Amino acid sequence: MQTIIRKWGNSAGAIIPAAALSKAGMNLGDTIEIDAEKGVIRFKQAEPEYSLDQLLDASPEKSLQVDDEDREWLQDSPVGEEFGE
């Protein structure tokens, strides 16, 4: 496939054919990472970055409950250099 690089404000842009976007498994609005070297520009889907709150919100409620095994582990004394001793 070929396309043309065009001026887009102070930047440049190229149309990505729908078939290429689909083949790459990407969608409109996706965040991408760009890498460039002489004669080659590559872009790939960026890995999502989640906040702690987002991760906790997506966690099953059961996984956030402290059970007897957790309590035992939390009450154990340090066995190594946990506190930088």
Automatic annotation (TrEMBL):
Cleavable signal peptide: none
Region of interest (Disordered), residue spans: 52-85
Single Gene Ontology MF annotation: toxin sequestering activity
Name listed for the protein in its UniProt record: Antitoxin ChpS
Native organism: Pseudohongiella nitratireducens
